[in-house]
Amino acid sequence: MKIPHKGYMVEFNLSDITRYFPKHEMIYLQDLTQLELYPVGTMQSGWYNLFADENAAVYAIHIEADELIYYGENPFVALENILKNNPLETKRL
């Protein structure tokens, strides 16, 4: 599913993200963040991959794995914050 917004694209495509985000990088991020993360999509505005944790909270991680952004406690709140470009918390890794 693709959601265009103000010239940006948010895409929820599990096959794409698992192909472009190898398992060893997932393990690295889980060790780094101490979260159990599951891929849910990509944001082509800034090259971020979207992940949800075991509680359905949504995070974006830059493809260089140097920044973790928290967007919301569930996918609906997160999508609203993504479309408004309103991250709730940003952490440099």
Automatic annotation (TrEMBL):
Superkingdom to which the source organism belongs: Bacteria
Name of this protein: Uncharacterized protein
